[in-house]
Amino acid sequence: MTNSDSIARLQAEGWQVKAYTMSSSQTYLQGILFALPFVLLAGGMYRVFLLERAVLLDHTSLIFLGIIIVSLPVHEGLHGIGWKLAGRLETGEISFFIRQGMPMCTCKAVLDTRAYLTGTLFPFLILGGGSFLFLIAFPGTVSLLTAMVNLVLPGADLAIAYKVLRSGAVRIADSPDQAGFTGAFYKGEQQDEGV
Questions:
Q1: What UniProt keywords are attached to this protein's entry (predicted)?
Q2: What's the Cα-to-Cα distance from 118 to each of 103, 129, 158, rounded to whole Å?
Q3: Which of 7, 54, 58, 99 has its CA 20 to 30 A from that of 24?
């Protein structure tokens, strides 16, 4: 069953649907704004407390490129793992694909809010949190760049999580085409108009 089939079935049962998706420019802007406090925290902590014992390397652009090449597919894979575990999903309900040269992951099942948030925030918690701890344990060029990449990548995920919490949604379907979720489901008149 696809997201649109699930949405149609829930609408037939009396649930209301509202889309919460972002354009590419909104995704980048909101992603940067939501990630900025964490990036500033990591960078400030590194500069003030860790720089003295940091291992500094040359070729930062190659290191940065390598970190991005590894982090992007791992980030998307963690979305899938989070949704699969939290939603107790069957095989085939998570889709991995490449769009415009970028790895992507989408959940085809309609999930409750908690399960959707788990999958959405899993890369931030695992990669972002792990990179932050790696920076503290082994300060240097590699750990700083790893922390910066893995704190910026989930910025849009943080924006989506904020929208989920503000929406008051009970059930959520991930958007297969855009950043965000295609429907927040409500029974009756519980919809939050301020989002």
A1: Membrane, Transmembrane, Transmembrane helix
A2: 20, 15, 11
A3: 7
Alpha carbon of 40 to those of 96, 122, 144, 172: distances in Å?
A: 31, 21, 12, 32
The values of phi and psi at residue 20, to 5°, are: -130, 75
Q: Domain coordinates of the chain in residue numbers?
A: 3-9+33-186
Q: Tell me the pLDDT tens digit for each residue of 130-143.
A: 999 999 999 999 99
Q: What are phi and psi of 89, to 5 degrees?
A: -85, 155
Longest dimension (CA), the chain: 63
Question: DSSP strand E in the chain: where?
Answer: 15-22, 94-99, 102-107, 110-112, 171-174, 179-187
How far is the C-alpha of 153 from the C-alpha of 174, rounded, in Å? 18
Round to whole Å and give the CA distance between 17 and 172: 9
User: Torsion-angle region of residue 155: left (phi > 0), alpha (psi -120 to 50) or beta?
Assistant: alpha
